[in-house]
Amino acid sequence: MSRGGCSSGSYNGMERYATIDPKLKFVIVAGGVISGIGKGLTSSSIGVLLKACGWRVSAIKIDPYINVDAGTMSPFEHGETFVLDDGGETDLDLGNYERFLSVSLTRRHNITTGKVYSEVIERERRGDYLGRTVQVVPHLTDLIQDQIMAAAVEPVDDTGLPPEVVIIELGGTVGDIESAPFVEALRQLRYRHGQENVCVAFVSLVPCLGVVGEQKTKPTQAGCSTIASLGLPPQLIFCRSDRPLLQETRAKIALFAQVPVEAVVSLHDVSNTFRIPLMMQEQGVTNALISSLRLSWRLPILLERWGRMAMAFDTYRGECTIAIVGKYTGLADTYLSVIKALEHAGMALHRKVHIQWIAAESLESLDATAADGKVLPNGSPTQRHLVYQNAWRELASANGILVPGGFGSRGIEGMLAAIRHAREHRVPYLGICLGMQLAAIEVARARLSRGMNANSTEFDEHADPAVVIFMPEVDKTKMGGTMRLGVRKTVFKSDVSNSIASLLYGRKPSIMERHRHRYEVNPEYVANLENECGLRFVARDETGQRMEISELDRSEHPFFLGTQFHPELKSRPGAPSPPFLGFVAAAAGLPLDEVAIEKMMLRVQSQDPWQPSVEENQELYASLGN
């Protein structure tokens, strides 16, 4: 084997697996017909079933696009960029894995064509291939397997032990030219690691056509045929549909795919995504996985807690409406983690959270003299003015206002107007990253002497005063991976007895949260913002120079909180993010005094599906044979 772990030209490559635990199991999840069919949630739900049985589970996402990572991709095209503890900017499906499985993944767990080709070219330039012709097989496929194996053995949970089962999701659609090298690499992995250690799951669409809603199986038949012809015959087939599969539909798919009828699983629409693992369990998926992977038989003991959590999502005691004022409101996936964090908080508080999407630009004041001014020559309002009126009507009716992260100057004045409304009308406000920076700008414009033109150098290079500035250590020339990324320590000040953030985090002296930003509150104006404007910075980074959490005093505002970090990225069902929990509680009109918060946090901690009671732990250990 040559340097870098790539085989020196042999097509055998069995030495690659010599140090891998032979008991390590893989579940490969691929899809056909169309992309975006739900492979990520299917993979996460499979992981839930296995983890509920007591196995340590990890997940890997393969993205066939040529981008090195998701950091520079448009949110309109690809949805949100999910940031990991180590600063990896990844596909949003890794967020699904982390939320469902309560794990912390790394950049290794997101493999892209860009990463693979970059590494192969770098190895070739170093001379690692000793002058050989570098080819897709074996060099590219070997490297893909190297990257899979490196990620597969990495601990991802609190035990610090390597995973026992790894879910591998192949993005895109089987048969696409982009995914061909990855399919071949997975075929080789299945052969080399042992077919008894690999289960192939195929996710497909079963459309219902016509007035009677006939379920069409041909797309699934074609997809199964394609993936089988590539050396990955499916052992489980998950069929997405808006209604449960008929028995004759399942039988027909099973016949053409050469699998038992029990291996064809109906993934029809449900009231919430937390019910998907329960739906799988009802159809015997856990037993099918155990059989395919030659695992010892176990009961999914912890699935009962998951079921109670899923039921809590549909049973609530009250409602509240949150207005999200952002730049990318046309695509909900752009703010997927924010949506999920609100769901987690609402579920914990038994409150139904309704989201009102408001495009920030629609809140910006109109110039009556402009071509798209308030009225037409006949006196009727313009379409632009109607949008403006509706946006403000929706904002005024919201119980809470949230401004999430973003980049660029578009819509900034609309966000500032929303923050001003929240501050002046005492509406609960949560600002994340850009939302915290804009809160500092809005308060400075309103209260800081000579602060009328306060701004960020991101929007105005000559801003005076420049309340928000570019971080000195950040590269201004390269876009990818150059921000302040990943988990960082945030330290609370010692004199924050009345801080709502400190209470929500359980009076911890410090916390670890994930970041993704290039700009920060200007340290030169912190004293002015605190003393003149009443905006308190209750937590900073380890150096004390970078502001992390800002608040207005609770005597002035019931809940006005900003975080430079992204708390939504570590929110979990059953373990919601503290800032989101406090925000939803405030929006729902729940008390937020110290005693009420302590009781709320204790109640929430008992709902975590992956923190079983003593009795449940004993039952789980008994099922493991310990």
Automatic annotation (TrEMBL):
Report any one BP term from Gene Ontology.
'de novo' CTP biosynthetic process
What pathway annotation does it carry? Pyrimidine metabolism; CTP biosynthesis via de novo pathway; CTP from UDP: step 2/2
Keywords, comma-separated and alphabetical: ATP-binding, Glutamine amidotransferase, Ligase, Nucleotide-binding, Pyrimidine biosynthesis
- Asked whether the UniProt record includes RNA-binding among its keywords, one would answer no
Q: Which PROSITE patterns match?
A: GATASE_TYPE_1 (PS51273)
Q: Which NCBIfam families match?
A: PRK05380.1, PyrG
What does this chain do? Catalyzes the ATP-dependent amination of UTP to CTP with either L-glutamine or ammonia as the source of nitrogen.
Q: What is this protein called?
A: CTP synthase
Q: Mind giving the lineage of the organism this protein is from?
A: Eukaryota, Rhodophyta, Bangiophyceae, Cyanidiales, Cyanidiaceae
